[in-house]
Amino acid sequence: SFLESLPHDGLSPETTEGREGFFHPVHIEGIAEKVTIQFILRDFVTAKLAEYAAYLKQKLDETLTRYPGAKAAIEVKEQYRNMKEVISQYPFITGYAMEAMKRAGVEPELSSARGGTDGSRLSFMGLPCPNLFTGEMAFHGKHEYVSVQDMMKSVETIVHLAMIWEENG
C-alpha cells in the first residue's frame, strides 16, 4: 500500500533523467510482523533531499491511517550530496584535470553523475575530488563495458595530472 502510493510517472530513476532528482526503493525485506524498505534519495540540490524524505514520511503517515495499530518509522542517513558544493570552492582542481586531459589528447567534457560517487564522499571528507573518466560506458546497465583505449587515455591523463600538480606545487 505504501509503495503503491508513490508516483508512477515521476521521481524514480526510470522516469527521470539528467539533473532530475528521484527516490528509489533499493531493498525490501520482510516477515509477517516487520517490513524494512531502504530508499536512496538523489538530487543535485541538497535541500530537495529533505523534501523527498518529508514526502516519503507523508505517504507513510497516510498509509498508517488505513491500518490502525500499525507502526512505522523513517530513518534518514546521508549518503551522497552534490560534490559541487565542495569542488566549486577549488576551481583550480577542475582546471588541472581539464588541462591534463588536453595534454593527453582528450577533449574535456564536464558532466554530472546522477548517482553517488567516491569523489563525492571524499570531497565531503575534506579531500576535494572531482570524478575523472576511466573508460567505462553504459554505467550499471546490461551493456556496461570499458574500452582499453579509453582506459589508456585515462592513465595518460592521471600521469599529466600528477605533472601539473608538481608544476604548480
Characterization of the model:
With 169 residues, this protein is an alpha+beta fold. The protein folds into two domains: 3-65, Alpha-Beta Plaits, CATH 3.30.70.360; 84-168, no CATH class. The chain is built from five helices and four strands. The chain has helices spanning 46-65, 84-87, 91-103, 118-124, 148-168; strands spanning 22-31, 34-42, 136-137, 145-146. The strands form two sheets. A two-stranded antiparallel sheet has the order 1-2. It has a two-stranded antiparallel sheet with strand order 3-4. β3 (136-137) and β4 (145-146) form a beta hairpin. The longest helix has 21 residues, at 148-168. It is elongated.
Blueprint (SSEs and pairs):
Blueprint: E1 22-31, E2 34-42, H1 46-65, H2 84-87, H3 91-103, H4 118-124, E3 136-137, E4 145-146, H5 148-168
Helix pairs in contact: 3-5
Number of helices, where a helix is a run of at least 4 consecutive DSSP H or I residues: 5
DSSP strand tally? 4
Largest sheet: 2 strands, antiparallel
Beta content comes to 5-15%
Fraction of residues in helices? 25-40%
Give the low-confidence spans: none
Order of helices and strands: EEHHHHEEH
Envelope shape: elongated
By secondary-structure content and strand pairing, the structural class works out as alpha+beta
Strand order of the largest sheet: 1-2
CA-based gyration radius? 21 Å
Q: What number of domains?
A: 2
Indicate the mean pLDDT.
92
Distance between the termini: 58 Å
